[in-house]
Batch of 4 targets.
Target 1
Amino acid sequence: MRSVRARAALGATVVVALALIGAGLSVLLVLRADLTGQAGLQAEVVAREVAGQLALDVPYDRLEMRDEEDHPVQVTDEDGRVVAVSKDLQAISGTGTDRVAPVPSPTVGGSGGGSDDDHGGDDGNDDDDSRATPAPGRGEVDSDEPDFGNGTATVDGETADYRFASVQATTPAGVTLTVHAGAPLAAEQEAVGTVRGAMLIGLPVLLLVVAGVTWLVTRRALRPVEGIRREMAAITASKDLSRRVPEPGSRDEIARLARTTNETLTALEASVERQRRFVADASHELRSPIASLRTQLEVGAAHPELLDVPGAVADTVRLQALAADLLLLARLDAGERPGLAALDLGALVRDEVSQRTGDRIAVTVSVPDQGRFEVAGSRGQLARVIGNLLDNAERHARSTVTVSVHAAERGGVVVAVTDDGAGVPPEEQERIFERFVRLDDARTRDDGGAGLGLAIARDVAVRHGGRLTVDGAREGGARFELWLPGAR
C-alpha cells in the first residue's frame, strides 16, 4: 500500500474500529449487568416474600407465590430435598437441584403434611410427635445478601432463562429452608440482542463513512504536495533552478514545506551559480600564466638565447600557488574538518613573520611575552590564514604592516593585521571575502593575486569555529581581525 491516502484511511478506519468495538463491548457489558441486576432484584423480592411466609409457619401447600409463570419458585430444606415448588413448574436448573416434585421433610411435618411414615404408626415415639407440632411464635428470614445465579426453568411447557436469588428462612420449628426464586432474563436478552444487532449493522456503515471522509480529507490536504512533487520533477527534468514550487496560502506544515523547498532551491541556485563563476574565474586565472609560460617556452625552443627563465619560474610558481589555493578551497567545500591539535597562536605568528624575509615592508609583531594563546586546529591551515592576511596587507600598505595577538572575550584569541594603505570602503567589506573578487585599486597594484586569499582565510576561520572581519584602522588603512575560540 504505497499511497499515503490509502494508509491514512486504513489507519483511521482501524483506530475508529478498535474504539467503536471497545465502546460497544463496554455498552453491552454495562447494559447486560444493569438488566441482570434488575432481574436479580426482582427475584430477590419474590424469594423474600416466600421466605417471609415460611418464617410465619405458612404450610407449604398454602404458600402464595405471585406471577408464578414469570417467577418460578423452588424451596429446599437443609438436606437439599425439595419441599415446595411454584405452580406449573416442570423443570429447573441452576438452583442446586433439578427436582420439581416436593418431597416432605420428616422434620417439618406440621408445615404442609408429610408421608404416611411421618403421620401413621403407633410406635409411641414422643420425639416424632413433638416435631410434628409447630412451635409457637415465628421464624426469621436471613437478612444477608442472597446468592445469585443463572439457570433455566420450564413453566407450563415453555423453557426460558432466569436469574435466581437464593434466600434462607428459618421456620418457628427451627427448620432452615432455602427459597430459590427466579426472574426472567428475556428482557435483558432482547435488549442486548437489539443493541448488538444495531452495532453489527451500524459499525460497518460508520467505518465506511470514516474511511471515505479520511480519504477525501487526506486527498485534499495532500493536493499541494502533489503540486510540489510535479514542479520538482519539472525542475529536475529542465535543470532550471530559477523555477519555484507553488506555496499554498495556508499556514500548515505543507506551506512550510513549500517555503523550505523554495529556500533550498534558492540556496542550490546560488551554489550552482557560485560554482559556475568559480570554474569560469579559475579558468581565466589559469589561462594567463599558462599562456605566458607556453609563449616563453616556445620562444625559448626557437631562440634559446631569448628564453626568460626567471619569468618562466615566476609563472610556474604562480600556477603552483593557484593550484594549491584551488585544492584547499575544494577540500573546504567538501566539508573537510580541521585537526584538533593544540597550538600557540602567538608562536605561530612569530614563525610566519620570521620566514617573510623578502617582503617590501617589514612586519611589526606585537605579541605579549607572558602567557600562551592556545587554540585548537590545523597548524597548516591557520598558518595559511596568517600568511594570506600578511600578503594582503603587504600589497596595500604604504609603509607600515602590524600584526598583534591578544586575548579576547569568551576565552578566545584575536590576531589583528593592520596596514596604512587606502583601506576598504564600507560597502565592499563583505564582498572582498568572495572568491576571485579584487577591488579596482587592488588590480592596479596586485602583482599576481587571484582574489582567493581572503576567501580562503574566512573559510578556514569559519571551519575552526571562529570569524574573520575587516574594519578601518587608526592609521587610515584596513584592520583584519581573526577571532578563534581558545583551546579547551
Note: The first helix runs from residue 4 to 55.
Target 2
Amino acid sequence: MTLTVPTTPSGTLGGDASRTPALAVRFESVHRSFPTADGPRPVLASVDLALAPGSVTALLGTSGCGKSTLLRQGAGLDRPTRGRVLVDGTPVRAHDDRCAVGFQEPRLLPWRTVRDNVALGLPRGTPRAEGRRRVDELLDLVGLAAHAGHRPREISGGMAQRTSLARALARRPGVLLLDEPFGALDALTRLRMQDLLLDVHRAHPTTVLLVTHDVEEALQLADRVVVLGRRPGEEAAGVLDVVDVPGERPRDRESADLARLRTVLLERLGVAPHHA
C-alpha cells in the first residue's frame, strides 16, 4: 500500500517564480541490506511511501530501526538494494540538486564565517550578486544577520544549527531531508528551533521529511507521522503505522488531541501508556 501525505495550505508557493516548487517524493518497495561477514544484514524491507509536494512528514522510530538509512535513500546519498526512490517522478540521483540534507551536527567549516558557511549551499554557477542577496535573505530568515561575520566557535549550538538550516535552503531545494536536526540541542533551544522550522517552512514551503525519535516534536511539526520499525519475527524494518496529525501549525502543545496521539504513538513504539 502506498501512503500519501496530503498537501497543506503552506505547501502553496504562490506567485514567486524564483523558488523551486516543492516536489513529490515516492519510495517504491524500498529494500536495503548491508554486507557483513555472516552474509547480508537486512535493514529495510518493502517500504512504500509517498510524500505530496509541500507536506511535512515525520519519520519516527526507535534507535537503529533504519530511519536514517531511509532518509539517505531519499537524498540520493545511498541506493536501495531493491526498489527505487523517485523525486518529481524521476529517480533520485547521487548528490541530487533537487534535495538538501540537514544533519544532527551542523557540520560547519570552522575557518569560514556564518555567511560563508551559508553560501556553501548555493548552486554552482550562482552569480555573485544573486548569491549575496540569497544569503542575506536566509540570514534574516533564521535571525543571524547580526552574526554573519562570526565564526562557528563564536556562536551557540542553536545558532550553528540555524546556520546549517540556512545552508540547506540556499540551493532552493524541492525536498528538504532533516536527520534529527535538533537532537543535540538543549530542551529550550530545541523548542525554539522547532518554531523556527515552522517559520522557515511557511516562507519556503518545500517538501520536508524529518527523522526524529521525539514524539512531541513529530506531533508539533508534521502533517503525518510515519512509524518505522520491525514487526515480531522480522529482521528488517518497515512501515508499522501512519498517523495523521489534526490542526494547522503551529499547534497547541497542550492539546487533548495531541495528548491522545502521543499515547497512540508511544504504544506503537512499544512504550506502555503508564511509562509515558
Note: The longest strand covers residues 41-51.
Target 3
Amino acid sequence: MKILAIIPARGGSKGVPGKNTKLLGEKPLIAYSIEQAIASQSFTKIIVSTDDEVIAQIGLDYGAEVPFIRPSELANDGASSIAVVQHAVAFLESENEFYDAICLLQPTSPFREKGFISKAIAKFSTANSDALVSVLPVPHEYNPHWVFEADDNGSLQIATGEKEIIKRRQELPQAFFRDGAIYLTKIESIKNGTFYGEKLSYIENNPSLYVNIDTMEDWVQAEQIVPTILSLI
C-alpha cells in the first residue's frame, strides 16, 4: 500500500503564536511528527503542507519534503483539515504521483510511542475499513450515556436519546474520543470529503502521552510531559 504522510503546519496560530516553530524541549514542535514519520519507515512520501517559508525550511531540515507552499486561502482559521489534505493529494496527482491512502500526522499531537505509527498502519491494512483513527477511552463520568443535553425549553435529556439512564458504570458501553495523533484514510474517502469513510476502525493510544496543543495551557502541559517521555517516543 502506498501511503502519503501529510504533516499540516500553517504559520498563523492564535492560541500559541508560532507554535509549529516554537521549541518544545530541544526541537521545534513540527520536528516530532516528522521524525516519527521517518522512523516508522512506513510511508512512500512524507510531506509538510505549509504556507510559511520558515516552517518549510524546518521541514526540509528534518527530512520531510515540501513540494508546494500552501495557498493563503487554505491557511486561515476557517480552512478545514480535509480541504488541506485534498489540496495536497490533488497537487501530487497533477505531478503524476498517486497514493492508496494518506496518514495525517498533526504536529499539535506530538507524542507517539515508538512503533505506534507502524502498528496503526498494520491494523489499517488488515481491517478492511475506509479509515482508522487513534483514540483514547472516554472516562465513565463523561460517557455519552451519562451526558445530558439541554433542549429548547431548558430541560435536560440524555445525549444518546434514551429515556432511562444506565444505572451501573459496569453496564456502560465503551466510548472513545479521537486523540489527534493519527488519521489514516483511503484516497477515495478523502476525495469524497471525509477522513472517516463509511467504515471506521481505531487503535488505542497511550494515555500518558496525550496532549493536544491549542492553548498556552496545553503548551505548558507538553513542556512538563516531554522530559518524562523521551525514551518512549
Note: The radius of gyration is 19 Å.
Target 4
Amino acid sequence: MAGHSKFKNIMHRKGAQDKKRSNLFSKLSREITVAAKMGTPDPDMNPRLRLAVNNAKAQSMPKDNIQRAIDKASAADGDSYEEVRYEGYGPGGSAIIVEALTDNRNRTATNVRTCFSKNGGNLGTEGSVVHGFERVGLIEYPVSAGDEDTILEAAIEAGADDVESEMGEDGGHSIWTSAESLHEVAGALEKALGEAENVKLAWKPNLTVEMDEKSAGTLLKLVDALDDDDDVQTVWGNYDISDDIMEKLGD
C-alpha cells in the first residue's frame, strides 16, 4: 500500500471543475441518464447508476436535477448518448486519455482534435496510449475523512489494492481497487468512512512523466480546454507536475 503521491495532478487539476458548476452538473446529469438507460432506473438495482447518483450528491447536485436525469432515460424523445474514448499525446511527452458521452461522434471528435492541436498536442489513434495505463477503480475521500493510518486500515479491511494520501488543505485520499471490485470496496468503505467524494473507473498510468514549467503550462491549458467541452466526461494523463511548478503557474 503506497503512501504520499501527487495523484491530484496526474488526472487533472484539483478544483478545476468546482469553478464550473453548471458544466459539472451537465456532465453528471449525462452520466446518470446513460447509466439509467443501460440498466434499471433504480439505483439500488443498478451499480453504475448508484455511483453516478452518489457522485452527483457529493457535488451538491439538487435532488430534482438527479431525478430529471433519471427520468430522461425512459423518455421516448430523450437524447441517446454513446461512450467514446480518445487517446492522444500532450506537451512534454505526456499521454492523455479522454472519455466522452456524445450524441454526435463527428462533433465530439472534431472538438477534441481541436483542443489537442491548439494546445501543443496531437490526437492519436485508438490504442495508441492506453497500453501505458491500467483500468482500475478509484475512490476519493477528503482529508477530513481521517488521517493516513485510519484510511489505510479501512482500505485494507475493505479489500482495496492501494492508497495514496496527500495531507494538507488541498489534499485528499485516493483508494485504488481492481475494476471488478470497485462497487464492493466502495460499499465497505462507505460503512467505515461515510460517503466518498468520488467513486469511478479510472485510467491509472503505469509510469508518470515529469513536466517542466513550459510543458506544464501548455498541458494544463489542454486539460482545461478538454474539461470545458460538454461532451467530455473525464481526462486522464500520465503527467506529474511538481508543487513548485504548480505554484509558479498560479494553481
Note: The mean pLDDT is 85.
